[in-house]
Amino acid sequence: MAAGAAASSLLVGALGAHAQKKYDDGATDVEIKIGHTNPYSGAGSSYGVIGKGIDAYWRMVNDRGGIGGHLVKFITLDDGYSPAKTVELVHR
Predict the structure, then answer these.
(1) The three-state (H, E, C) secondary structure of the chain, written as one string
(2) Do 54 and 74 meet the contact criterion of CB atoms below 8 Å apart?
(3) pLDDT band at 11 (very low <50, low <70, confident <90, very high)
(4) What is the reported pTM?
(5) How far apart are CA 1 and CA 71, in angstroms?
């Protein structure tokens, strides 16, 4: 009887652990983080309008409830049209 109780408690514990949600870095039950770099300053600053358009798109998605109930946190950073700075910001 004790062995049966022990086995059933292990089974219930295993099911509980298996049912927990596991997300990759940048995601939670309520939010998904997306990173982006764009030249908002420097020689390529005219391309900054692209990043602003992408930001507007994600705001629209969030206004409509997000993706499967998860809001998108869109993080866009200015790389100044510098490849070295782009690499640094993407690693961040």
Answers:
(1) CHHHHHHHHHHHHHHHHHHCCCCCCCECCCEEEEEEEECCCCCCHHHHHHHHHHHHHHHHHHHCCCECCEEEEEEEEECCCCHHHHHHHHHC
(2) yes
(3) very low
(4) 0.72
(5) 49
